[in-house]
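Moderator note: this is an archived Q&A kept for reference. The question asked for a predicted structure of one protein chain; the sequence and the answer are reproduced below.
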Amino acid sequence: VVGGLPITQGQNFGLLRYDESRHVENLALQNPKAMQSAVEEGKINAEIFQRSVVLTDSDHLRLKASEIAASLYACQQLQATADTLFGRDAPSLVTLSDILQRAGQLTEKLLKDRGIELSPAPAAAQAAPETVVDQPAGAVMIQASQDSASAPLRTTPTTRDEAFTMLAGIAQFFKNTEPQSPVPYLIERAIKWGNMPLEGWLNDVIKDSNVVDSIRDVLGTKEPKQ
């Protein structure tokens, strides 16, 4: 699903359609008739993909690069949290991470073809002021000033609160773009757990009171019987 999300404007092609265009081009080198049949079936070649790229604004590509970078960061943070909480039983997000990395590389390539390099913000640059507002859980909680719109995206948080805010923004992004995906709800659950004390987390995650008592006993937090 993520690979099908549009990167270009034109005909709204994404990573999967780009891969398809490369495959069709390889067919053309081996069997031109097979390539023609593939195009007639609705598949695209490099020329068709490039037409869509030409119709795409550079600012749109910059925005996509920022969104993909932020999504990749959230994915990596979610994987790290799941690994910490569940160990070997943690779900793997390797496939999602790989697709996001490749989508980011494709977007950077399209920008580089236009002579646009994505570079991190200079160390001396001042961070734009941020205003925290009350919004529902999962909503973006930072409203950046207009000057920050043109600044390169900072993908590494500097504080714990900022990290959770960035994760909440990514959850909202996936809710808007992939309402059928479980990813935003997993992120929101990770945020919820991250703000819980140990006792609250144990009760929320483990429903068997005997198991909870055993963990408390190991940690030395079990209350002595009266």
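Archived answer notes: The chain has two domains: 2-113, 160-219.
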